[in-house]
Amino acid sequence: MDATLVIYALYLAAIYALMAIGISLVWSSIGMVNMAYGATFAVAGYAAYFAADSIAPAIRSWSTGVDGMVLLAVLTVMAGMIAGALFGILVYLVAFLPIHDKPNFAVRSLIVTLAINLAAVQALLFAFGPQQKALPRIFGVGRFNLLGTPMRLDQAITILTTIVLLGLVLLWLRISRRGLEIRAVMQNSEGAALCGISTRWTALPVMMLTGSLAGLAAVLLSQSIFVNPSAGTTPLIKGLTIALLGGLGSVPGAVLGAILVGFLEAITGIIPFLGQRYVLVVQFAFIVLVLLIRPRGLGGLLDETRE
Amino acid sequence: MMRADKPAASYAKVGRRPDEVTLKPDGGQLWHRWRPPFSRRHWLAWRGRYNPKSLQRERLLVDKRPLWWTLGLGGLLIAVPFLSDQFVNIAAIFCIFAAINVIWTLIVGAAGIFSLATMAVVGLSAYAAAAANVYLGLPWPLMMPVGAAVGLIFGLLLALPSTRLDGLYYALLTLGIAEICRVSISQIKALAPSNSSINGVASFIPSAWHLQRPGLLLGFAGAFVLLLCALLVFRLVNTERLGLLLQTAREDEAFAEAVGIDYRRARWLVFVLASSALGAIGAFYAMFYRSISLAVFSLDQLLLLFAMIVIGGLGRSEGAVLGTAIVVLIDKGLIGLGPLRIIIVTAVMIIVALTAREGLTGIKAQFQAFRNRKKSERRAARTEKGGEVMPEEATEISDKQLIYRRLFDKRLRDALKSSITPDLIAEHRAKPLGQHSDALDRLLNYFRREEMPDKYAILRVGPLRSCSYRVMALSGRAGHPPRLVDDKLYPTLDEAYHAVFLLRINDLLAS
Q1: CATH 3.30.160 placement within chain B
Q2: Which of A79, B150, B228, B440 is a plausible cystine mate for B125, CB 3.0–4.6 Å?
Q3: Angstroms from B30 CA to nearest CA on chain A
């Protein structure tokens, strides 16, 4: 295995981890399977595209050097994350707030988020058509050598950005007051409610946070694929499978699952008789195997201890 | 002989549902039930009773769903020959999807296995049956048994992990298997050379009639029979022994296990049976379209089917059929709207999921529960307002007169409290002993009727000529002296009377 492959695998793992952790967090804190995550991804991708499209000329006229590129990159990522957070609020308002204390919430919220996903994809199709939009290469296209291994600049920056931002999020969950509340709700929502932690006011930052993670993933992944209305479907399915592989609700499990699946995908892609076409099949076969051996996923001891 | 009759007299129009149609059977018909031959079951759920008001014997249909089924399906059967070609086709597609959904409901609702491999089973069997027909020359009547056999084998494979994994994990697994099926079939070049689809499949519709009016009608007839068979399978599995075992397991798994029900085996059996039925439907699907393509495995198709069973209500056959009717009408009937129709479907989905707990067919039960809750809330409010006696206390009191006496007393006090005004008090101060207004009279009469304990009395203090008065309260018990209320001295008797009056008003307002 050469170093380029490792970098590519880590690049995939970074993006999958963003999606999987988002789904996992939502499930464990508010008990909802967020099927609208794919739509969040697509909407954020479009928002980032339009933001970059409208501000790029102004920035280019201001500066064509490194500072201009950094500014464009930061603004695009911000636009994607803000759009993701806003879509997270929408999902919160439609799928969580009206029914979170009603019977059958898990199934009903799954249905509603699925419907939001379908509707948003169709609405994007309706508004912008099926054409694919290419985000500008905000991280540049160059290569550089790190300790003798050639690396693509955008992949390296993606890995770094993901590690930094995920680290910040996990740190925030660990040290801030709001993070403490979220973790309390994750452990025992009834107990948290008895201690005066409102489920409603905890769910809102969770949805915004996970929405902005999806937005970040959208901007990062759009460096190598195009933005189109159904762009979110594959990341959604992969994020969901990785979240389940890691055991729903377990952040370390999700990270481990993302790394495993990223490497699996990178390796499957270069094996001659398998190739890109079989990536999904190999992934599913792997996950089926893991679930048959460990029915609750890699880190899925949380559910059992909760019971 | 029976005749439909409403209760004759108007006094019989009392009760929860006075306008419900009931039959009034004659003597010979009183206990008569129709049974299917060689069984002890009844066709319809009749119940006999005496009308509590008119005291006449009557029969009423407790479960009216068979009537709705007959009306709906019979109406469809009668209406289809008069529809345009497009709508005949839509009706046939509705029947096929409804059959798939009814069987899927059996898996999800009755067996409680959240499988998303429905369309994978259908598609795989359809491919197998079509390949057997096209490449091996199998005649079309044998395609459905082949499809059922393939479905059975596939179902056996799928059922293996179903007892080990739960809920979402199994759903994901089946989703993955569906994807694996799609990709594998697209890669087998020998199976489907052109565009991964098999064309030219033989069918029960003669090829000369293909896409002609008689062919469409025949296709609809076949699909309708398919739907009836699916409903029969649902009925036979869900309401017979297997269904009862599964219902026990759904209500309480530990209890079911304790009484010796092997619910895992029952679930497994239902799953395999349903997969086999889905396989037969798959073969029909290939025959109906005379071809089979990879679109059968697509995620969009699966999500649309999921929308159907969700809108109707998970776990009921009528829900599956109703949801299918709605979604197929929107999806195929309004085809001119383009992508908007998916948005309409999702809007219906969101509205149903947000408002109805169990889909459209659960609305009735939900409304009844809501009405009962409101009713008991109102009852509780009444008890709180009028009742000195709380319901739990009322069961402890054997003399029910006492309860009503206290209820009456509470209402009387409420009425009297509202009549107390500064004018009234001024009137009493002016003339404590006489010629009172009606309101003051009522108040004083109420005070006079009060019980002996804590009734007030006036004590004269000092010699008769230069005496003053004090207020005291009686103990109400023989041998126990009255106690002084306070140490105020009143120079005249009228002032003492008025002081007693004020004390009593104070007590009344504080109660």
Answers
A1: 420-510
A2: B150
A3: 43
The yes/no answer on whether domain B420-510 falls in CATH 1.20.1260 is no
pLDDT at B98: 95
Which of A262-271, B240-249, B464-473, B486-495 has the least mean pLDDT? A262-271
CATH code for the domain defined by A3-306: 1.10.3470
Q: Angle at CA B103, nearest 5°, toward B97 and B108?
A: 115
Which of A:16-75 have CB within 8 Å of B? Answer: 33
**A281 vs B161: CB contact, 8 Å cut-off?**
no
Query: What residues does each domain of chain A span?
Result: 3-306
CA geometry: angle at B192 spanning B190 and B193, to 5°? 75
pLDDT tens profile B356-398? 888 888 898 899 999 988 888 877 776 555 556 776 677 777 7
> Inter-chain contact A240–B172, Cβ cutoff 8 Å?
yes
Instruction: Look up tokens 């036979």; give the residue.
Output: B236
A255 in Cβ contact with A21 (< 8 Å): yes
Per DSSP, the three-state class of B5 is: strand
Closest listed residue to residue A250, CA positions, set A12, A15, A23, A40 = A23
Closest CA to A82 of A54, A118, A51, A126: A51
Inter-residue contact A124 to A42 (CB < 8 Å):
yes
Three-state DSSP class for residue A201: helix
Burial of B297 (0-12, 13-18, 19+ CB in 10 A): buried
The answer to whether residue B166 neighbours chain A at the CB level (below 8 Å) is: yes
pLDDT tens digits for range B47-65: 888 877 777 888 888 888 8
The SS3 assignment for B457 reads: strand
pLDDT > 70: percent of chain A: 90
Q: Give the whole-angstrom CA distance, residue B149 versus residue A307.
A: 41
